[in-house]
Amino acid sequence: MTPSSALFAVSFFLFLSSGALSSRTVYELLPKYGLPPGLLPSSVVSYNLSSSDDEGLFVVRLSGPCYIQFDYLVYYDEEITGKLRYGSITELKGIQVQRFFFWLDVDEIRVDLPPADCIYFQVGLINKKLDVDQFRTVHSCREKGALQLHTPLEDMEMLLSE
After folding, report:
1. Would you say 23 and 35 are in contact if contact means Cβ atoms under 8 Å apart?
2. What number of other Cβ atoms are within 10 A of residue 122's Cβ?
3. What per-residue confidence (pLDDT) applies to 6?
4. Distance between CA atoms of residues 107 and 92, nearest Å
5. Does residue 121 contact residue 130 with C-beta atoms inside 8 Å?
6. Cβ atoms 95, 69 nearer than 8 A
7. Is the Cβ–Cβ distance between 43 and 63 less than 8 Å?
8. pLDDT tens per residue, range 26-76
9. Cα dihedral 149→155→161→162 (10° resolution)
């Protein structure tokens, strides 16, 4: 074996043992942090978790923006960021929920520790508790055109025309 091929073999072995090829999906990662896998849509194309400290920077990229109907209609931007730690994602950006006529940013998602049957969504000053069962399975995105979304003005016009 030549020195260059030996160096390649050692480098390749270190690459494999570092876990670089054992690609764990984000849907496998979330439960390891006590969170249900269905928090994110099925359109995730990549994610990165910087684990330099206890609160790793979490970046998720989707194939495009999408909507999912849970108890509320949820919008996912093409990029979602936050700080992931056991039981929560804080400083969340890229997820919004529709409430009445408004789209509100979801700032934080957390579960009780140890994980229970409830999940909490922090939207501004409002803390909304939901049943975690609707987030146990991964849902497919729906494009905006597939939904009957209206602007507040359209909703007002529909109310007045009735």
Report:
1. no
2. 17
3. 40
4. 5
5. yes
6. no
7. yes
8. 999 999 999 999 999 999 999 999 876 556 899 999 999 999 998 889 999
9. 80
The confidence score (pLDDT) of residue 26 equals: 96
Q: What residue type is assigned to position 118 of the chain? A: C
Report the alpha-carbon distance of residue 7 to residue 119 in Å, rounded: 49
pLDDT of 116 reads 79
pLDDT of residue 142: 85
CB 142 within 8 A of CB 66: yes
Residue with tokens 């969340």: 92
Q: 88-140, pLDDT tens digit by residue?
A: 999 999 999 998 889 999 999 999 887 778 999 999 999 999 999 999 999 99
* Domains of the chain in sequence order: 20-161 (2.30.240)
Tokens of 25: 């999906």
Length of the chain: 162
Residue 162 pLDDT more than 50? Answer: no
